[in-house]
Amino acid sequence: MAYAEAKNTRLRENTLDDDAIPEKRGRVDLPFTILVLILLSIGVVMVLSASYASAYYESGEPTKYFTRQLIFAVVGVAAMFLFSYIKMKTYRNFSMPLLALAVGLLIMVLFIGVERNHAKRWFDLGFTTFQPSEIAKIAVIMAFSVMVCKYGDGLRNFKWSHKSEFIKAFFPFAGVLGVIGALLLMEPHKSATIIIIAIGAVVLFAGGFDVKLVFLALGIAAAAAIILISKAESSYAELAATGGGDYAFRRIVFWLHPEADPSNGGYQVLQSLYAVGSGGLTGLGLGQSRQKYLYLPEEHNDYIFAIVCEELGFIGAALILVLFAMLIIRGFWIALHARTKFDALVAAGVTGMLAIQVFLNISVVTNFIPCTGISLPFFSYGGTALLMQLAEMGVILSVSRDMPTTRNG
C-alpha cells in the first residue's frame, strides 16, 4: 500500500513526463458525466420555456431558439465524449499552439468581426456567430498548466529577499494575461477579461502560487471595490439626473440604486428582481413566467436564471444550484486524483472556470454584483458557447480516464 502511494506521488510530481502511464485507459467518471447531462437537459428545457415568447414576437417561430440550442446540445454531447478520448499528452503538446491561435483570433476579430452594441466580439460563421474569447479561456488554462509545470517552482514561498527570482518566474504568466486582457478590452469585452484573469489565478493557485500573495491581491481588489462603491454612492443622484458619466461607472451606480432610473439604467436589474421575487417558494410553474413576455431583456440568455426562479421557485432554483455545486466538487475531486500534475491543473482550471461563471451569472441576476454580461453554463442560449462548454467537460472526462480509480475499475 505504501509503495503504491509513493509511486502515485512520483507520477504526479513528474510534471510533464507521462511515459509511465499505460496505454490502456479507464472509463469516464460516471457521476461527473451524469451531472453534466442532467444540467444540460434542464437547461435546454428552460431555454424553450424562457424564449418562446420573444422568439414568436421576433420571427413567428416560438421554438426558434430552442431548436438551435437542442441541435448544439446534441452535437456538444458528442463532442464531449470525443474530447474525452483524446489523451492528455495530446492536449499538452497543442497547448502553446492553441494559445497562439487564440491570440491570432482575438486580433482578427478587431478587424473583421461583427459589431454589435459598439463591440466587436464575434465572427459571423453564417449559421451562427462565434466569440474567440471562448477559445482564449481554455487556451489560458492549457498554457498556464504547462508553464506551471515547467517554471512554477519560482512562484512558491515568496520572500522579499528573493523577489527578483519571483518576478522572473511570474513575468511569462503576467505577459500572457496582459496581452489577452488588452485585446479583450479593445473589443471591448470586460466580462471575458475578468473570467480569464480569474481562471489564470485558479491555475496558479492550484500550482502552488504563494497564498500570501493571493490574499494580498484580494485585499487590493477589495479596497478598490470599496473606493469605487463609495464614489458611486456619493454621485448616483447627479448621474441619474444628468444621464452622464462613464458607462461602466453608471452600471455600478444603478446596481446600487436601480430605482433611480427604473425605465433605463436600472430597468434590467429591477425586472430581474421582479422575476426572482415572483417565484416565491415553489414558483409559478414551468412555462408560466410573466417577465419573459418582453419585460425582462436577455431572458433566455444572461438572465435565464431569473426565469428559472420565477417558474420553479426557490426550491427549484436551489436544486439547480445543488447540482452545479455537486458538479464543481466532483470536478475538483477529479483534479485531486489526476495522474499527472498537468492533468490536475487542467481539471482544476476548467472546473474553476465553470464555478466562476456560475457564481458571477447568478450574482448578476440577483443583483449581488453589477451587470457583467456573463452567461450561465448549460442554460444560457448560445450554440457555440454551449459546444465549447461541453467540449471542456470532455477534457475533464479525459483526465478522469487516467485516474487510478477508473483505470482499476
List the main descriptive attributes of the protein structure presented here.
409 residues, mainly alpha, 3% strand
Q: Major sheet, described briefly?
A: 3 strands, antiparallel
Q: How many individual helices?
A: 15
Q: How far apart are the termini? A: 17 Å
Task: Estimate percent helicity.
Answer: 55-70%
Instruction: Give the SSE string.
Output: HHHHHEEEHHHHHHHHHH
Spans of at least 5 consecutive residues whose pLDDT stays below 50 are: 1-15
How big is the Rg?
A: 22 Å
Largest beta sheet: strand ordering: 1-2-3
Quickly describe the structure:
The protein has 409 residues and is mostly helical. It has helices at 2-13, 30-59, 64-85, 88-93, 95-112, 132-151, 163-186, 190-206, 211-242, 247-256, 267-278, 304-336, 341-365, 383-401, 404-407, and strands at residues 114-116, 119-124, 129-130. Among the domains are: 87-209, no CATH class; 266-409, no CATH class.
Explain what this protein looks like in three dimensions.
By secondary structure, the protein is mainly α. Among the domains are: 87-209, no CATH class; 266-409, no CATH class. The protein contains 15 helices and three strands. The chain has a three-stranded antiparallel sheet. A hairpin with a 2-residue loop joins β1 (114-116) and β2 (119-124). α6 (132-151) runs parallel beside α8 (190-206) and α11 packs across α12. The two termini are 17 Å apart. The model is unreliable at 1-15 (pLDDT under 50).
